[in-house]
Structure prediction request, 173 residues.
Amino acid sequence: TLEAAREYISIENNFEKFVPDNFNEAIAYVDGSYSKELLKYSVGCVIQYNNKKIELSGSDNNPKYIEMNNVAGEILGSISAIKWAIDNGVESINIFHDYEGISKWANGDWTANKLGTKEYQEFIKHSRGKLKIKFSKVAAHTGVELNEAADQLAKKGLSSATMVNIRKTKLSA
Prediction:
């Protein structure tokens, strides 16, 4: 059963891994970072789909979002994963995140007060018409392999010049 498979994988690898519910479901681990010295935020995103791993990272310094620090990168990671899934014809995505707000704003559990969180809520609402979107909270810095990889990509992203075209990364054949 799927439940037995998940239990086996969890025990065998000594940390929780995700088994997709169907063959057209992607999983994405997202994270964000912020540099006070560089005055920019960054994103790290690791997507697994059909036995392929796609990594996205980059940074931005949009004045409208900079006050949100690393949260801007966390939100941008979720948005990037969703845009990637839509662009690649994926039916369902499960976004793993370590910042609670990623799912809370998306699901309407938290009130969006800032421009970035308001736009994020609208984006999720619009995207749910094209894609089934689920969220799963994971603890930060606990050895979950893909979450740690997303964290490293976010840190690496701070050295990137821009976030331009991050969502246009297509699945290679």
Observations:
- The helical segments are 2-13, 70-87, 101-106, 115-127, 145-157.
- The first strand starts at residue 25 and ends at 35.
- Confidence is low (pLDDT under 50) at residues 10-19, 164-173.
- Strands lie at 25-35, 40-49, 52-60, 92-97, 132-137.
